[in-house]
């Protein structure tokens, strides 16, 4: 997977491995700590120049060492600084012990901390190196800081936040700013971690990029550099059939709007042709609302198969407004492993028998599942119930077990492939959480599949373009206005 710095995410374990590899290559580990601490100090002075006192909270490990370096740098810059240590600082070892010895700021136990209204807190207690809930004493500090509304600069990660899962282990600091080093971690992007980190700065402290790339796994931040080369490039000979024919299945007469949204989105996202496959009872209402999108009466699985035998259909969207039950299962199975975006009711229809869905898609990866949390829990209950796993890990396990691309939706949508690749999306604005936006997303991914884009790249691109369209539409948008702001293939 592409290792552009803007996309790199390293788990805490991977970052530890990178630190170890840097030391083995001859890079002085204390030199890295000095650069990290100085970066924190520089960020604090740049972003909080009004601060009358920087309160540096130092923990019992290397994160605390970064804090001692930052405190000394702030002192040398002329700032007022106070250091408060968690635990017995005399038990520090290695680089952290050296950093404390070089810090000339008067140091006090954390229990003696009295916060003032002019303080800015630098949280250098645990960072990413925490695997259990923080102490009661530190939780009280967190509560007092939150009640006073004080700025908090987190070093690496807000203490108490799991860097792998983005979940507080019990309670975590609410940071206004986070300074991390070399690459972000999954916990910076996954919710609620993203909201606990505030603004995030990534500083290069001198670990060679080859070491960072070697340590990184297959998890990335979603970005065009990862998939833009897989998108079709229109040329002078392009025509509607080369851009694919997308079919979207409609629900009954009172549930047609979702399918039309998906169809309109598919057309806007670049499908050459789009047809809504409608039951007889909904033909009139669909016909009265469709213009460029075509319409075909389709009642049964047999009719679906007959259509497949006669028409050049490239990809399908099933689920939005379709209804839960045997008909949805029948239609999905009639598609026989063809490129399919299964959404909403289509997913829920297989909750009692997911294997019936997965078996026809056991070959090439052509199935894209787009569940929100509730739908994910229905289709993958055992995975969903495992609290030891983060969202990205759950999505990857689901992708492997289903041989499908999983679009695990939310403010932190995760897209995972059966081969172990995964991306976390981060460009979706809050107002994208509105009725019908998921139907739009299904149509956009369907259009990319119709254009012969591989399933993982189609899903990752669709999710990203969905977020970009919402940003252009602006706050207060509806699903209908969202469709009007879709711009396909903007990097070609």
UniProtKB/TrEMBL annotation:
Function: Catalyzes the dehydration of the S-form of NAD(P)HX at the expense of ADP, which is converted to AMP. Together with NAD(P)HX epimerase, which catalyzes the epimerization of the S- and R-forms, the enzyme allows the repair of both epimers of NAD(P)HX, a damaged form of NAD(P)H that is a result of enzymatic or heat-dependent hydration.
Sequence ranges assigned to domain YjeF C-terminal in this UniProt record: 223-492
Protein name in the entry: Bifunctional NAD(P)H-hydrate repair enzyme
Keyword terms: ATP-binding, Isomerase, Lyase, Metal-binding, Multifunctional enzyme, NAD, NADP, Nucleotide-binding, Potassium
Record EC number: 4.2.1.136, 5.1.99.6
Binding site for (6S)-NADPHX: 62-66, 127-133, 156, 258, 321, 372, 439
Start and end residues of each YjeF N-terminal domain: 15-213
PANTHER family for the chain: ATP-DEPENDENT (S)-NAD(P)H-HYDRATE DEHYDRATASE, ATP-DEPENDENT (S)-NAD(P)H-HYDRATE DEHYDRATASE FAMILY MEMBER
Signal sequence, start to end: none
Lineage: Bacteria, Pseudomonadati, Pseudomonadota, Alphaproteobacteria, Hyphomicrobiales
Protein origin, superkingdom: Bacteria
Native species: Pseudorhizobium tarimense
NCBIfam families: yjeF_cterm, yjeF_nterm
Gene3D superfamilies, per the entry: 3.40.1190.20, YjeF N-terminal domain
Similarity comment text for this entry: Belongs to the NnrD/CARKD family. Belongs to the NnrE/AIBP family.
């Amino acid at each position: 997977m592409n290792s552009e710095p803007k996309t790199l995410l390293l788990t805490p374990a991977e970052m530890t491995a990178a630190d170890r590899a840097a030391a083995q290559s001859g890079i002085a580990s204390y030199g890295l700590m000095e650069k990290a601490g100085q970066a924190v100090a520089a960020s604090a002075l740049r972003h909080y120049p009004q601060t009358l006192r920087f309160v540096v909270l130092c923990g019992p490990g290397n994160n605390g060492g970064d804090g001692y370096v930052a405190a000394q740098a702030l002192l040398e810059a002329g700032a007022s600084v106070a250091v408060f240590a968690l635990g017995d600082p005399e038990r520090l070892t290695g680089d952290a012990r050296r950093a404390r010895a070089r810090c000339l700021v008067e140091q006090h136990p954390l229990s003696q901390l009295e916060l003032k209204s002019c303080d800015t807190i630098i949280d250098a207690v645990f960072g990413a190196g925490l695997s259990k809930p923080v102490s009661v004493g530190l939780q009280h500090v967190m509560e007092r800081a939150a009640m006073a509304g004080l700025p908090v600069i987190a070093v690496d990660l807000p203490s108490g936040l799991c860097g792998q899962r983005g979940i507080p282990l019990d309670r975590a600091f609410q940071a206004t700013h986070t300074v991390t080093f070399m690459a972000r971690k999954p916990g910076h992007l996954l919710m609620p971690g993203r909201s606990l980190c505030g603004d995030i700065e990534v500083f290069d402290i001198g670990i060679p990029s080859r070491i960072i790339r070697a340590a990184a796994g297959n998890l990335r931040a979603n970005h065009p550099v990862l998939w833009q080369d897989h998108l079709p490039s229109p040329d002078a000979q392009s025509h509607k059939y080369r851009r694919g024919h997308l079919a979207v299945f409609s629900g009954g007469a009172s549930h047609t709007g979702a399918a039309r949204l998906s169809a309109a989105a598919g057309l806007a996202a670049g499908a050459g042709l789009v047809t809504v496959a409608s039951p007889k009872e909904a033909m009139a209402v669909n016909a009265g609302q469709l213009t460029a999108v075509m319409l075909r009466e389709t009642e049964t699985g047999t009719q679906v198969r007959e259509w497949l035998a006669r028409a050049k259909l490239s990809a399908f969207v099933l689920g939005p407004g379709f209804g839960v039950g045997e008909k949805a299962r029948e239609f999905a199975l009639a598609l026989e492993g063809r490129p399919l975006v299964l959404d909403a009711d289509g997913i829920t229809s297989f909750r009692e028998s997911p294997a019936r869905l997965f078996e026809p898609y056991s070959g090439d990866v052509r199935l894209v599942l787009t569940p929100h949390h509730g739908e994910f829990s229905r289709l993958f209950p055992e995975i969903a119930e495992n609290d030891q796993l983060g969202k990205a890990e759950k999505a990857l396990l689901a992708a492997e077990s289903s041989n499908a691309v999983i679009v695990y939706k939310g403010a932190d949508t995760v897209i995972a492939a059966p081969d172990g690749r995964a991306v976390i999306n981060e460009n979706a604005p809050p107002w994208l959480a509105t009725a019908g936006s998921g139907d739009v997303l299904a149509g956009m991914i369907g259009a990319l599949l119709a254009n012969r884009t591989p399933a993982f790249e189609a899903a990752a691109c669709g999710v990203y373009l969905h977020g970009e369209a919402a940003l252009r539409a602006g706050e207060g948008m509806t699903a209908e206005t969202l469709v009007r702001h879709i711009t396909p293939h903007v990097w070609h």
